[in-house]
Amino acid sequence: MQGFGxxxxxxxxxxxxxxxxxxxxxxxxQAPAQPAAPEIRLGALFPLTxxxxxxxxxSFRGVELAVEERNAAGGVLGRSLRLVRADAPDEAAATxxxxxxxxxxxxxxxxxxSFSTAIALPASQVAELAGLPYFELGAIGDAVMERNFRWVFxxxxxxxxxxxxxxxxxxxxxxSLTRSPESLxxxxxxxxxxxxxxxxxxxxxxxxxxxxxxxxxxTYAPRPTDLAALVQRLRGLDAEVVLHAGAPGDEILLFxxxxxxxxxxxxxxxxxxxxxxxxTARSIGADFAGxxxxxxxxxxxxxxxxxxxxxxxxxxxxRYGADPRSGHGLACFTGTRIVLDALQRAGSTERDRIRxxxxxxxxxxxxTASGWGARFDERGQNLRARPVLCQWQPAPAxxxxxxxxxxxxxxxxxxxxxxxxxxxxx
Length: 426
What we know:
Pfam families: Peripla_BP_6. Keywords: Amino-acid transport, Signal, Transport. InterPro entries: BCAA_transport, Leu-bd, TAT_signal. With 426 residues, the protein is an alpha/beta fold. It folds into two domains: 38-154 and 310-359, Response regulator (Rossmann fold, 3-Layer(aba) Sandwich); 160-296 and 388-415, Response regulator (Rossmann fold). It is built from twelve helices and twelve strands. The protein has helices at 2-24, 53-72, 91-101, 117-129, 159-176, 194-209, 228-236, 250-260, 278-284, 309-320, 328-346, 351-359, and strands at residues 40-46, 81-87, 110-113, 134-136, 152-154, 185-191, 213-220, 241-245, 267-271, 292-295, 388-395, 404-411. It has a seven-stranded mixed sheet, sandwiched between helices. Strands 2-1-3-4-5 form a five-stranded parallel sheet, with helices on both faces. It is globular, with a radius of gyration of 23 Å.
């Protein structure tokens, strides 16, 4: 995609230059060349290093693909776009990098980020104080949008959307077992951090509303080295379904502890993060088969509700030489497209006109590569972004090779490409 853009614009510059030279030959004076329109600089603030570096890089790739696509089509307002990378592996770096992007010669037109609620909070606060539009493409914690900021917009779904999708997985599991959802014993396992807290609180409230049997909401300290004590606690509660909301990497600790304890619930339903990552499936192996997750839309989705998902995966493969690693890239690709469309409609890079264009956005659901639509409320939250229910299922393997796993959409029905499996493990 990037190479096509360079060839296209390179050819245009050569042919235009040659035409001007012939027309001016023999003329008494040649008109001075018009200066090129200044580029539009956009900050891309993600954890590009550190524990969440892989997720940040995957998210950045989605932004990068959308920007390269737009530049190949002529840019925005007739101006080319340039991404200014900002590495924010922790809260302190997020603050420092957001300040850099909002001041002086490094100031950008807008910031796009950030994957993590812990990173989004300080970065968006700096942007708000600087009067700089900030677009959150991936962090789902409630706190991001609860401050009533004027210049902060979230394209991604909310924690409550992910919580509802996870509980839809409970109903799907119950149907496969020919049991009622109320008869299943649920436990929430939650890291004591902002994003997981938002998801777990919403799950607890929804479980009560749906009259489900929640035996406990179990929390554990951030950055654990093992989750053996948590697993023993869940086992003692006779939990049949574990709803897990934690940091990337916690899912590996959970499955390792379950294996060591020789215990397996009927189902684990995770929430985004490492649950949607191909590297997680390879690391855990066969035990991860059947695991469900409320997640960002992966490439294996019904194109009727996510037109362009397959084309995104193909473009990703051409650009990076590998398949997409998770749905985070597709989410950021879709989100960036929505943002760039608003910038074009704004007709200017002036912040009030950008805000007005964002709030006037009206894109129906089922018309983007992730299946999202876009309609923002007065607080700046997109109300037409939805997660999907995914499951890791056996994938076709080459002769003589062990079976692999791939993440597929199993709900909602119109987005599904596979039937749900009612068990963990192969």
